[in-house]
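Quick question about two entries, pasted in order.
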Amino acid sequence: MLVPLLFIDVALVAWSLHLMEKAYEHKEFSLMLAGLLVAVAAAAMMVVYFLMGHCMNYLLQVS
C-alpha cells in the first residue's frame, strides 16, 4: 500500500513544483499559493498514513 501512495505523493510534489514554476514566470500569487497547498497536501497525506499505521498497530496489539 505504501508504494502507490509514494507514487501519488511524488506526482503531487511534481505538480506543485510545476505550478510554482509557472507562478514565478507569470508573477501570479494565486498559482504560487496553489502550488504550496498541493505540496502541503502531499506532506499531510504521508503524515496521516504513518500515523494511522502506528495507530492500527497499537489497536491490534491491545486487542
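Here is the second entry:
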Amino acid sequence: MKTRLSEADQSRVIEMAWEDRTPFDAIFQEYGLTEPDVIAFMRRCLKRKTFKNWRERVSGRKTKHLSLRTFLVGRAYCPTQYKSK
C-alpha cells in the first residue's frame, strides 16, 4: 500500500470494497489504491474466512469494474454510506 490510511479511511475502504456497485476505480480515485492494493489490504484487515467470502463475492463481478459495466448500472446511494466525522 502506498499511503497510510487513518482508521476512518480504512473503515471506508472496507465498506466500499464490500459494496456491490462501488467499482475498484472509485476506490482508486478516492484513496489511490489499485485493485491489487485493495485485495492485499482486505487480506490484512479481514479474518481468513471473511476475506475468502469477500473474494468469492467480488471475483468476476462486472459491477466492480467500470470497463465491464453497462451504462445502465449506476451507483446506489445509501443514507448511511457517507459517515460524518
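Reply: Residues 7-60 form one domain. The radius of gyration is 13 Å. Hope that helps.
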